[in-house]
Amino acid sequence: MLISCPDRVGIIAAVSEFLHKHGANIIHSDQHAIEREDGIFFMRITFQLDDLEEKQVFLCDQFQQVAEKFAMEWKISLSSQKKKVALFVSKYDHCLQELLWRWRIGELDAEIKMVISNHMDCQPLVEPYGLPYYHIPVTKEIREEAALEQLKYLKKEEIDTIILARYMQIIPKRMIDVFPNQIINIHHSFLPAFVGANPYERAFERGVKLIGATAHYVTEELDEGPIIEQDVHRVSHRHRPEDLIRIGSEVERIVLARAVKWHVNDQVLVHGNKTIVFPG
Amino acid sequence: MLISCPDRVGIIAAVSEFLHKHGANIIHSDQHAIEREDGIFFMRITFQLDDLEEKQVFLCDQFQQVAEKFAMEWKISLSSQKKKVALFVSKYDHCLQELLWRWRIGELDAEIKMVISNHMDCQPLVEPYGLPYYHIPVTKEIREEAALEQLKYLKKEEIDTIILARYMQIIPKRMIDVFPNQIINIHHSFLPAFVGANPYERAFERGVKLIGATAHYVTEELDEGPIIEQDVHRVSHRHRPEDLIRIGSEVERIVLARAVKWHVNDQVLVHGNKTIVFPG
Amino acid sequence: MLISCPDRVGIIAAVSEFLHKHGANIIHSDQHAIEREDGIFFMRITFQLDDLEEKQVFLCDQFQQVAEKFAMEWKISLSSQKKKVALFVSKYDHCLQELLWRWRIGELDAEIKMVISNHMDCQPLVEPYGLPYYHIPVTKEIREEAALEQLKYLKKEEIDTIILARYMQIIPKRMIDVFPNQIINIHHSFLPAFVGANPYERAFERGVKLIGATAHYVTEELDEGPIIEQDVHRVSHRHRPEDLIRIGSEVERIVLARAVKWHVNDQVLVHGNKTIVFPG
Amino acid sequence: MLISCPDRVGIIAAVSEFLHKHGANIIHSDQHAIEREDGIFFMRITFQLDDLEEKQVFLCDQFQQVAEKFAMEWKISLSSQKKKVALFVSKYDHCLQELLWRWRIGELDAEIKMVISNHMDCQPLVEPYGLPYYHIPVTKEIREEAALEQLKYLKKEEIDTIILARYMQIIPKRMIDVFPNQIINIHHSFLPAFVGANPYERAFERGVKLIGATAHYVTEELDEGPIIEQDVHRVSHRHRPEDLIRIGSEVERIVLARAVKWHVNDQVLVHGNKTIVFPG
């Protein structure tokens, strides 16, 4: 259960009393309050309740009273209802490989439904996983048409999460509007440094001593969406641009895998242009 | 407020309802449940309540009913009632220096009351801080007498926390019994590797590629108490034992400063031989 | 070119003069001198020389005079002559997967010739790579016979490097004698902590705040061989043993991949029970 | 000895032969060659030679022949001739404190000659070290006059290195011209992210998950000079701007201390807008 509302006295008491009354056992409960300016309260509660699937409609109905009193935005996600994920990829396959591998060993609690690519290169890697691989070429001129074709597949499988696993094309507004804060991109720099193209080459030129990667939700502003996770790795004057690409690819796949895991577990809340990442 | 009790349905609801009823505003609330074996529940709640100092006795009295129902161990600490700390040191001064500096800039929310040392070496460093410096020599033969003298000073100032900031003497049982889980030691290795004497020399001999430091509560078993915090730093074949000592001293002071901060903020709960460290 | 010899004045001058005289261009040159006790000098020189393959015998012959003067142990490896590697694995496949993937993208400059396993589990993962997968069951009773069968395959392909990518069997002396400092193991703890079985379970019991992995050369003493690389990852009281296994597997594969890369690039020299790892 | 020159065959041989001929014992020797574009070769040699102080003029004279042959820029620094350092500081004292402490324990092999500040705040901290503290107020209007006064003190003590230990004033061109690549600044962000003022506030607004610090040489372009060292620390949504300042101050002092150490040990070479940092 994820909740956000104006911060007031009594929210935790009201929610935990409600859950207790309906027989739920709270396993984790994490809160975060932003004191600055507006005073917003965020809460994530993991609870266990027998026959939740049957009771869900009734429970939500009842909770509406509590929610209205505190002007809450809220949702209940069942751990049995997994997120439906599409992976977008171009030619680099390290992020795709990492996500598929973690999914296979049970670390990503989601249903990966398809891989969409503007190239055929990654098809052999995907094949053993038995996933459909949709090859939809994209150029600047046919971006909108390509998005329509992508959307057709996405809707058919009721996809709710898109992972850009080094997908080297700009996502059109049309697509972002359908998936607000549901598209995760991996940018191969420590944002906000090196926004845009060729970050490793530019990191080399600037002579930085650490290179990084950033997983963020996609918004209309390129590389400006809410950051979910970042990490860095040490480099030195001995490393050439091709070394930065190699070392960076290791950071990219770890950072993206963490962000995707948190997202599919409903651990991430977006507020303005920032994320609150609750512990798992 | 810190609580630990057997894990049952309804604890969070009961506690938050109680606090709400008495007009408290919950700022943070963190829980941790151990599912294995016994099923223990741990909780740390930070709340704000006007005139808490006056109401404390009444509130504790009332809470006793809730506590009994769930068989809780619990305590309420006021942020205005700071921990009273004694620093023990021998000759190395880097940990002492770090703690005093952080205390001066307001980062350690505690009252440092005294420095106790078996040497005079650190006295000049302490002097500008206006703290009493008690020089109490210790040898194996007079360990018990020394402890009695130390205890005299500690009791006089109602000390509740002892920090061994590289104090190179064994703490006798007599002292540990008075301060259970209230004495923090910094060991200059990544425990449980290199328990005991000369860890850097032994790390050098073994050819490890990372050296570390461990802050832990002192128990009767040398270097076996509950670990509060650990960290490491990379080393290479180029580093000689004296380099390990130098690099390690940086890790030691950071690790100890973190552990002391968490302890004086009541963020640490001990269960068996492990710690639960709640976020601040 | 790798050299080790007693430390004396003039070694670098003699070697670089020799190479210069024969038309070689030194690309990198790294030295390390151990001052303690014996005074040993280590050197790794990367040089470029046209037609080196043809000239190799002549060059080595000529260098013998320099080598004798300084009592050197030395060898010249051609970057065109890649190490021949066998991967040993049991049931866990994360390290195997990581190595195969890095090999495929060209990051491991070696010839992986075969996978040997005491189980069939990893066979499907290996198949797409077109490598032979030898299934040789091992129990304590038939360890020596199994080693003989393994050695048969290893000799046939002139293997010079064995990687134990989570191979859960003890390597018999017979095998170690054939491959001195040529067998790399990944141990799932930060050695020398948690030598032996079940390190994650024991790390959980001890309540450590960081878990680690160690890549080392295999010697007759279990988990006591020269350490090549180590790393750690932060954990907390929220993590159960199964989380430690999952988090640790990430550290294991990164640490092993680094160690293997350095080994196949001839960046590692062993001295006593320690390694000198030259930068790449 | 630091050397940079166009990359050609035979440099290492020529230099090491020269040193050997004059009786020097090479302790360390590190090279770095930039292959791209111009092909530049960099070298740092640490050697031991009896009576070097007396022989220095003769040796340099002789070496000039070697240097001319390869068009070298070069210099020989004696470890007995320490760099003369001035520390510039404003109100924040954590970097100053760190440097003074490391200097006192012998970790900074330099002569700190004075502290210059535009405020009186840090005077008490400096006093126990017995260093002169020059209070020179600066405003935008009197920046040039202030620089002239600073230069007077700097010249008097033959200062060759200026450390801006959180000195919150822009350094005028007049000063930079006198100390090219000899002024080290600590910027409280992971450059090139958050160039300019208030980086922590801007890091908070952007919602980054790591904050950093960067030590760099000062050039006329604000925060654009050659980077010597960088590091980062993890933060989360729980941290407010004041927490970022506190956590960041820890990174700042470690990063600056490393950079200063490398600089005073002559481990840093500047090429264009980048640094080559040789291992110590």
UniProtKB/TrEMBL annotation, chains A, B, C, D:
GO MF term set: formyltetrahydrofolate deformylase activity
Keywords for this protein: Hydrolase, One-carbon metabolism, Purine biosynthesis
Pfam families: ACT, Formyl_trans_N
Top-level enzyme category: hydrolase
GO biological process, one term: one-carbon metabolic process
Reactions listed under catalytic activity: (6R)-10-formyltetrahydrofolate + H2O = (6S)-5,6,7,8-tetrahydrofolate + formate + H(+)
EC id: 3.5.1.10
Chain ranges of the ACT domain: 1-81
Functional pathway: Purine metabolism; IMP biosynthesis via de novo pathway; formate from 10-formyl-5,6,7,8-tetrahydrofolate: step 1/1
Active site: D223
Family, as annotated: Belongs to the PurU family.
HAMAP family, sorted: PurU (MF_01927)
Function: Catalyzes the hydrolysis of 10-formyltetrahydrofolate (formyl-FH4) to formate and tetrahydrofolate (FH4).
Protein name: Formyltetrahydrofolate deformylase
Gene name tied to this protein: purU
